[in-house]
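Forwarding the complex inputs:
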Amino acid sequence: MKFRAIVSKSVKRFSDKNCGKNKEREHSAQSISAKNALERLPKSVKRFSDKRRGENKGLEQERDSKIAHFALADRRFRTFVYQLLFGVLLVILLIAAALTTYHNLQAQGITSGFGFLWRSTGWNVGVALLPVSALDPYWYVILLGFLNTLFAGLVSLLLATMIGTVIGLARISDNIPARIVASLYVEIFRNTPLILQLFFWYALSGLLPAQTQSFEWAGLFYLNNRGLFLPGFNVSNLTLFLCSMSLLVAMIIVTWVLLTRWLRYWQVAHKRLCCLAVFLVGVLAAILFLLQGHGADTALIDWPVRRGLNFTGGYRIQPEVMILIFAISLYGGAYIAEIVRGGFQAVGRGQIEAAHALSLTPWQNFALIRLPLALRSMLPMLSNQYIWLIKATTLGTVVGFTDIFLVVATGITQSGQTLEFIAILMGSFLVINLTFARIMAACNRAIALKGYGDKK
Amino acid sequence: MRKAASSLPPAPYFLSYRQLRRGFFNSWGSALSTFLCLGLLIWLAWILLRWAWLEATFSTSATFEVCRAGGGACWSVIANRWRIILFGLYPHESHWRSALACLSIIVTVILICLPVFWRVNRLIITSVTGFAIFYILMKGGVFGLPLIREGQWGGLSLTLLIFSVVSLIGMPFAIMLALLRNSSLPLVAKVTGGLIDTVRALPMLTLLFTFAIVMPFVLPDMLVGERLYRVIFGLALYFAVYQAEIIRGGMQGVAKGQDEAARALGLPYRLRMGLVILPQAFRIALPATINQFVVSFMETSLVTLVGFFDLLASGNAAYRTGEWRFAFVEVYVFMAAIYFIFVFGLSRYGAYIERKSR
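Prediction (whole assembly, two chains):
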């Protein structure tokens, strides 16, 4: 009731005002009368009908010119003026900020510009995918940080997806103990801040044993306070890169063939054959690269071997990287589990019952009915979560992981080029996240329901 | 999504034999999973019980050796350092003020959660009053309370301060951004949209860093202000861009006829939004909004990294100084429990609201 009273009061007040809008500036408020309202009504009705039929253009223009001296009353003109004001204000603000910045930089004696990118850094990077020394220029170190961010983001994204899928499926399974374990996991990891968990794992990693007493699993993996030691390939980084690229390209082509609408008239069997062929070619290429890449006198696989106090051979994953990826995957996994659960619960009960009625096996029911439908409703939320995950790698600064954020932070304290570094930092995250959002949007378009609301 | 979720069977409280069999031994795989999971649960519960209670040391005067001999948790560190964790660097004799201030924020949040208070006026009055009490208690300088500067604030009260200011500034800011993005003026809508999308693509830490370090370069001296408030403003901006998208989503959910009816009544923009569109949009977006509050409460802990003494940082300081370096697990468990109570409470409340609004 109260609401209605407010509405009617304000409506009354407003309609009084609105009727005399054109005359407002000439007359004082008292002269607003019912007469004005009556005068105005046919006009506005007329204008409406003019627009609808697209006729009587001349009449409209004539009237426009008549009321030109009440310029602000014209809707289009008003819109234009407001936008002009907004634009001018924006430009003034930007110029003021630029001038202040210039003034402040002058006062502190800082020369701005991107020339520093070609100077050598003079500090060393802890974790890097490519060889690096203190003599390397800034641009190279920034590039390394960028690659580290991408690497940590993608690996933890994969791990989080795996954890999330398992936990999410456990949460909707019939098995009650599995549901309880999964719920405990989700509630514990979702309801405490990631940074707290990261600090905790970092402190806990201090308890890892020294190299001589490292945890060992089947002589393949060793875990100690110097990191995780895995068996690796005895090839150069370039070969490894080519290998993974050929696999990646094959996977992308397979996904594209399966999802694109261009090939929608192909038979399913043909599509599958094509995918299999592409996949085999990718794997073959990867194997060929590996065989070509390693030297003739060395073994292909390099096992971690204890030599004295240290380990040689294989890959060493530094503790920082390990902890960061571990913490982000566990935390992200809890969120993804919720998304997976929501996605599967969103599948209509009728769909599942229809599958039962068609006597599909439980596996067919899962793989052909529930998974594709669940994926469709999960994907928009998943893409948000993935972007969030990649952004979360900046927390690597807690454990000393040299991602782009830590590189930029160190660079600022070392070189003083604050603004340039911040611009680089923001630019790289914009590039990563906007690209990623684009890719996920394309995937979403490919599997979304076709029909209403489609652009094509 | 809604229908399916509600059509699933609710968690069983009393199990019949058939339900029991379905829930525990539906198939061989299920039986295996039952044994594995039950084993895991019992093992974890036993370890936790032994660590946290049976073999734990509770005495306030215990030392490293005593705790090690016990073998379990060393809760003595909490008994000795809880004041640092909760109140940070705040002067010892004024800790009651900090505690009362925290209480006022908590009470305010609980009041706001009650549907009775879901009127614009009541919401504004309650939150502003709660915050004013908090601020006066913390800062002092009036009513005979000695003045305590922001630099000395810390612990849980700083976390709550950041959270409440971020919500208080962020919410109107978010509404403004959402309205600007929905504006009929293309330039305004484009610029706001660009701003929102850009900030959303950036990590929170980047934004905090920018506001803590870069802003003094860009702003004239009189606008620079204290570092704490700059960082809070950065957090509020981050909150606002996310909340703006949530509100915009809610506005898209309001039936088109509502807006048209309001136009037909001749309501001006201000009343159309304030009385017709926004209340309904908020109702639709309520679960997402509560979720956003939860996330932003957890994200306040990031200020640790730009050098503030919030709950997390003072917890770190509590075990890193003096003889308690070995007892970090206990401190982190204590802090996690504090965060958990707030976050879990809020998110349960969100789930309750979501169920109710169906």
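The beta strands of chain A are 215-217, 221-224, 227-230, 232-233, 301-302, 305-307, 310-312, 315-317.
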